[in-house]
Amino acid sequence: MKFADILKLSLNGLTHRGLRSWLTILGIIVGVAAVIAMLSIGAGMSQSMKSQMSNFGADVLTVSVGRTRAFGPESGFTNRFQPGESGSPPGMQGQTSQTTTTATTATLTDTDLLAISKAEGVETVSGIISGRATVQYLAQTVTVTVEGIEPSAWNSMTTSKLASGRLLESGESTNVVIGNGVANGMFDYNLTIDTQIRIGSKTFTIVGILAESGTGSFGGDDRTIFMTIQVAREIVTDIGNNDYSSIQVKVTDTNAVDQIIENVKQVLYTSRMVTSDTADFTVTSPTSMLATIQSTMQTLTFFLTGIAAISLLVGAIGIANTMFMSVMERTRLIGILKSIGTRNSEIMKMFLAESGIIGLMGGLLGIFLGFIVVGVISSIGFNIMGMGRMGTNTSVAIVTPELILFALAFSTIIGIVSGLIPARKAANLQVVEAMRSE
Amino acid sequence: MTSTIIELQDVKKIYKMNGVETPALRGVSLKINKGEFVAIMGPSGSGKSTLLHMVGALDTPTSGKVFLDGVDISTLKESDLARLRGNKIGIVFQFFNLHPTLTALENIELPMIIVEKDKKERQQRALELIKAVGLEHRAHHLPSQMSGGEQQRIAIARALANDPEIILADELTGNLDTKTKAEIMSFLLQLQKEKKMTVTIITHEPEIAQYAETIIHIVDGKIKVGG
């Protein structure tokens, strides 16, 4: 029997059991659509992350207080305030304690800054303080993040672009540069160059507006106001005079970032008198952050896809069930087919073709449905994990041709594998026994 | 000059069900000549259907040998045996012979599709056959849309599709009215006469058996001599 004729007979059987065939196919459609949606959303999110991360500048490390791993907040936070155990050297420690208005906030100090600047592979360091401040413009008051920076260092490290105006210069005490989000949309009237605003108790002139940048530690400046660090200390009063919220470190060699991170950690262990177990700071690089985010994304994608795969498995069981029913119902027909010359192998192929077609159809329509789901999710904006704040024109989900081919092949194979046992059962029926059944 | 087309040598068939052995044939030897019209008669449970299955290469004997056209069928592989059935034997059963989701014409075409005959040839042949059984107006009907007699005629047409040497029929007139019975039997008789086909039928109706040249009586799995 020619394979084309076997296929025709299989299709004939499927179309004559229309509703049941469709219900079985539906099981696969849902499974495939779920897998497609999850995989492409995963791919889209990590791509979106990647494109956002590239704003950071690969040669800038960020040192911040607090830890991202190990024994949780208790050990880190309590140890930090035991004299001699953490923080600055004894002399420094006393001074810090007196000037720090909020005693529960751990800080990076001048000593740390100095120590880092001497670490191998560090080109420049720049301390930053950040805090919240009230900003007044035309009788409207908004609380905004304020960052105090050292212009010469910051300007060389930032990847933010200017939309208009200029960057700050050292020693400027009455000028600010503002993020795009501050300029547009934060106040009822948009802010422009040379506009005067009140921050805390002082009046500043806007000299520069940054281009829209998205988010991020160093480049994500949309909703931040920048001023020189000296002025910022007068406005953000809860940070000690010799303390910093974070330290930006420019490295000499982007290929040696991992080694330089290690160097920076080592000098900080010494300057802060901590060990790697009690470390109360974190050093991050764009690449390490990217890797962390990527691996988180990957786990999430795996997890979601796993759940979707379960529905695909249920669909496969559905195929097997339908095929078993079909073999039982058609026992007599199988007997007739054999009595007029059909080989066992041809009966087997006939049933495998049926289940394969169910799988293929499910795959095709599942991809289609998956596309729709992906499209809907993309257009809604997808706010999971702060995705909403990220670039607005980045696609949230990506469906690749490979994914489509994979889905088609996979669903067809699922169909065939599910049909294997029923098809064998059909092929091995004895003609006489089959003929006896009604 | 007659030659043997079917030969059974001391064929025994024992069915095993749940450990209980039920002998269906207890040693049957017979020869059927080419072009012969044979009727197998016997009460139900006598083993006549089993005998027909042996003759039609649908089942293998527990012991003994079955020769079809001189070939010992126990020496054939499953796939060759299947094709042997397709090419040399046309079988008509009592009920539900047809592929339920294929039309009458497609059903007739089916055996030719199985043995991979040329498409044009098989479509032409199917048309000839449906005309021969007088059902061309039913060509595109499904079996469920036809009467029992019509279905049996389509089944006969299908059995003839590959020009078999042997036609086997198991109670094919069992549930038909007298007029249809007569029509179908005379059709078979005509095939035997004109095409020199070997026809073997199973029946429990003496008036049907009358059409045959040879009547074999089988009782309790054995041929009743002098029946």
List keywords for this structure.
heterodimer; A: 438 residues; alpha+beta; 2 domains; six-stranded mixed barrel; two-stranded antiparallel ribbon; 14 helices; 12 strands; elongated; B: 227 residues; alpha/beta; Rossmann fold; six-stranded mixed sheet; four-stranded antiparallel sheet; 7 helices; 34% helix; 28% strand; globular
Low-confidence stretches of chain B: none
Mean pLDDT score of chain B, rounded? 87
* Strand residue content of chain A: 15-25%
Query: Are there runs of chain A of 5+ residues with pLDDT below 50, and where?
Result: 68-104, 215-219, 383-394
Structural class of chain A: alpha+beta
Q: What fraction of the residues of chain B are assigned to beta strands by DSSP?
A: 25-35%
Tell me the quaternary state: heterodimer
Q: How many beta strands in the DSSP annotation of chain A? A: 12
Q: Count all strands of chain B and give the number.
A: 10
Name the overall outline of chain A: elongated
Tell me about the largest β-sheet of chain B.
Answer: 6 strands, mixed
Supply the helix-strand structural class of chain B: alpha/beta
Total separate domains of chain B: 1
CATH class of chain B: Alpha Beta
Q: Please work out how many helical segments of chain A DSSP would assign.
A: 14
